[in-house]
Specification:
Length: 299
């Protein structure tokens, strides 16, 4: 099929943009903490089902001890730490601004990949970094002076959550890449990451005595649960799967560059379904950050 990789990358961007909006809506009912617990458990069911269909088992028992350790750490850093902060940012700021802050993740990947993976950035990387930081900062500063009360925190808390979320996602990616370099396929790796995160999040919920309240919240609001479930299918499962297909049929740079446009798509969806006020500055800042991501991947 012509342009199969490019179409898969575009599909991944659409999935991630849509799931961000769905999670933002569900998070208004559940809160960011319960949302993170519920969606990772649901996503794990989808991922294990896919692994069973493709590999004949729900968990990759063929993974080595080193791979399991790296991927477990990746799940804790990316899904537990990173997504916990990202969802807080998502609930406070809305999908448009939160996903723009998420554009910082490739920057952290670049910074961490140099000493950890030995991937030395090219000369254009500085241009990419400047564009990402400039675009995100421009968007963030626009909101810094606006009074915005939310049960989960202020605008500043939302911005800080977005930055920490991007840091966690970048760190989780580096750890996962170290495991995949040792020969494990991406679906198996994602199952291990999601499994470790699910165990950690629900063990912490048990320690705090919050399992019953989390499940009650899910049962008590069918609409929010449906939004969360569809978001878990579209983002952590279908979006990741399409991104892997994109890498199979086209170059990593092209695939990543197309998928990087998901913050702009998320803004357009938020305008329509969340009635989020979108300014020219927000759209332009997001576009600048996206161009920076493209430069980083194509340098």
């Amino acid at each position: 099929m012509p342009y199969a990789g490019e179409l898969a990358a575009l599909g991944a961007a659409l999935c991630w943009a849509t799931s961000s909006n769905l999670f933002a809506a569900a998070g208004q009912y559940f809160g960011s903490v319960a949302l993170n617990r519920l969606r990772i458990a649901v996503a794990l069911v989808f991922l294990m089902t896919a692994l069973t269909i493709t590999h004949g088992a729900p968990f990759p028992t063929w993974a080595s001890g080193t791979q399991l350790a790296l991927l477990a750490a990746s799940g804790l850093v990316g899904y537990v730490f990173g997504d916990a902060h990202y969802f807080r940012s998502l609930v406070i700021l809305g999908p448009g601004r939160a996903t723009t802050l998420g554009s910082l993740a490739p920057l952290f990947v670049l910074i961490l990949a140099w000493p950890v993976l030995g991937e030395v950035p090219g000369p254009l990387a500085v241009v990419g970094v400047a564009l990402i930081v400039g675009g995100v900062t421009w968007v963030a500063l626009e909101r810094a002076h606006v009074t915005h009360e939310h049960i989960e925190g202020s605008v500043a808390a939302g911005i800080w959550g977005g930055v920490l979320g991007a840091l966690g996602q970048g760190g989780g990616f580096i750890l996962a890449k170290m495991a995949i370099r040792l020969g494990l396929d991406p679906i198996s790796a994602t199952v291990v990451r999601a499994s470790a995160a699910t165990v950690a999040l629900w063990a912490w919920a048990a320690y705090r005595g919050e399992i019953r309240s989390t499940l009650t919240a899910a049962r008590g609001n069918g609409r929010a649960s449906a939004l969360m479930t569809v978001g878990a299918f579209g983002g952590p499962f279908l979006g990741v799967t399409l991104s892997m297909l994109a890498l199979e049929y086209t170059s990593a740079g092209v695939a990543a560059s197309i998928a990087a446009f998901y913050p702009v798509i998320a803004i357009l969806i938020a305008m329509r379904f969340h009635h989020e006020k979108v300014t020219a500055r927000l759209v332009l800042g997001a576009l600048i950050a996206v161009v920076g991501v493209v430069v980083l991947f194509l340098h």
